[in-house]
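Ticket reopened. Same input as before:
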Amino acid sequence: MRIAVTAQDKNLDAEFDSRFGRCKYFIIIDPDTEEYQAEVNQAATAHGGAGIQSAQFLANREVKTVITGHVGPNAARALEAAGIKVFIMESGTVRDAITAYKEGNLTEVSEATVDSHSGLNMS
Amino acid sequence: MIISIASGKGGTGKTTIAINLALTLAETESVCFMDCDVEEPNAHLFLKPVLEGSAQVTVPIPIVDEEQCNRCGRCGEICAFNAILPLGNHILTFPELCHGCGGCTLLCPTGAIREEPLEIGVVEWGHAGSISHTHGRLKIGSPLAPPIVKAVKNRNQNMPEGTISIIDAPPGTSCPVVASVSDSDFCLLVTEPTPFGLHDLTLAVDMVRALQVPFGVVINRAGLGNGGLVNYCKAKNIPMLAEIPFERKYAACYAKGGRLVEEFPEMKEAFQSLWQTICATAPEGTKLP
Ligand code: SF4
Ligand code: SF4
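Engineering reply: fixed in the latest deploy. New output:
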């Protein structure tokens, strides 16, 4: 089982990044062994469809679950098609996200939580 | 002859200059006005054209028959806009991201993709007195302004020889502005004498120079401290074609949708002399009426 957490840096103590399509890094982790890999999100600078491209990237890495802050409608459609579950949280570190996930403290969403392009307006 | 009116930013009075120039020229010439500010067309508020026709503007977007698709993934690889994407067992399409380039349809090895028109906006045309008027309107939420701009400019082909076309470009320096200004014989860059105005003007100057369109500057609301602007134009060898002074009565006229050249004789003179200056400044080879 591999889950991905959107992050602002490359390690488990990094601040979580609430944007999905335009997060800086994906930390892809096996929650049982806590073995992880940090991947630069190439879609962060895409002209459009960043969320879609990110969903495809995660699907190609056989990620089944993603923890992020919010997803737009296009990303939500792509994640659903790829069979990737989405859990949301507000803030904390990547480690906090994993812990909350393991303890079952995160909310699963199946629809967009924000409008299109909202990731573009945030720093 | 095609004259485009542009400005590095909104709110410089670009449309005021465009319509008053059009009205001045219309007294002696055949004039066609093209409002290419398709996200916010507003010249019709001043010209008040009677509309005579309209046409939809569409782009072809892909529709995938999943039965015929072999999941090869080529469509997703070719699309630069993430508008089509094989994911899991489905081929997802995102029409609002699609630019209608046709690349995916062309590359699909099984013929699983066909194209359907998606409306992205309209072009409307008519007459305001003797002025032939065309404007485009982008559908809200569509990112595709340039095809509408091109559709507006295409109407120009129906105009009689010798017509002067005035193109009111969108503000800024992005793709739809480039689409509006390219192929012009001359471009007027409208600016105002503020530090922001100067900064945005420099961007607009870079754009028209890259497009190789001859241009000059019109200073609107002149008198608010022109120093930096004038120095910049002199240093860069940019012709300053006219200054429209800042006066409350002009602003009031604009605010109620009025026409400067009809209300103020000195404005009529100013626009006539602007036209003469354009003719004198436009480089040799420009088709002048
Ligand atoms: S037509 Fe072009 S932009 Fe549209 S989905 Fe196909 S490749 Fe992408
Ligand atoms: S290119 Fe054609 S066959 Fe290949 S995945 Fe896309 S739609 Fe299917």
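The radius of gyration of chain A is 13 Å. The mean pLDDT of chain A is 87. Please confirm and we'll close it.
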